[in-house]
Recover the amino acids of this structure.
């Protein structure tokens, strides 16, 4: 496999469920990201792991919990979500260089519906 | 605050040319990106501009004017497969990416 793969592609969960999203990158990159994409809104950066350092967006509710066991794998653990959390969750990776021109490689996303 | 503006939706005809504009107000500037996203798929990188001027890549070109806080993506010889959303993003002085909401481009035969 090449690129960035995300599983599952679709997820429906109740507000009391616990689930996890998985992302794997096969590009040898050293940074991984979780983004939330809602209709007609800009991409919202949720979490970044770069050079093994976690950078967190302070506005992310604690019901979202990331985990990065190594530079190739990233998880997003979900617990007690709300209907407004329904969105497309995108994982991305990049080769962090500090030069500004590093581009993101995205997975196809997990379409999450919270009932 | 930081802001990226782009039209919500545009319609164009197959074989024609379309220009998608992006204006930005950010804290500093370290480059501007365009991404293409087909419905239900991953965004994919199209172009990167950091200096003023036009960058051409086949049927797609991207222009930047830093003094005006303005960029556009020009698509020539439109094909049906160009129907997608086009995302503009600016890297600010802290190297954070600020995203626009995207422009949905509809191509009609």
């Amino acid at each position: 496999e090449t690129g960035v793969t995300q599983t599952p592609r679709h997820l429906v969960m109740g507000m009391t469920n616990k689930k996890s999203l998985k992302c794997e990158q096969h590009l040898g990159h050293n940074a991984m990201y979780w983004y939330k994409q809602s209709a007609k809104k800009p991409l919202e950066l949720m979490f970044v792991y770069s050079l093994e350092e976690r950078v967190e967006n302070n506005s992310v509710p604690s019901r979202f919990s990331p985990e990065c066991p190594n530079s190739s794998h990233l998880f997003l653990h979900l617990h007690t979500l709300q209907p407004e959390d329904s969105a497309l969750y995108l994982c991305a990776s990049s080769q962090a260089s500090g030069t500004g021109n590093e581009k993101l490689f995205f997975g196809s996303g997990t379409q999450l519906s919270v009932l | 605050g930081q802001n990226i503006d782009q039209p919500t939706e545009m319609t164009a005809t197959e074989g024609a040319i379309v220009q998608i504009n992006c204006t930005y107000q950010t804290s500093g500037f370290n480059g501007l990106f365009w991404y293409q996203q087909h419905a239900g798929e991953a965004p994919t990188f199209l172009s990167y501009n950091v200096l003023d001027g036009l960058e051409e890549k086949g049927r797609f070109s991207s222009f930047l004017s830093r003094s005006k806080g303005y960029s556009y993506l020009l698509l020539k010889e439109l094909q049906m497969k160009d129907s997608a959303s086009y995302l503009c993003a600016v890297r600010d002085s802290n190297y954070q990416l600020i995203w626009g909401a995207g422009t949905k481009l509809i191509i009609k035969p």
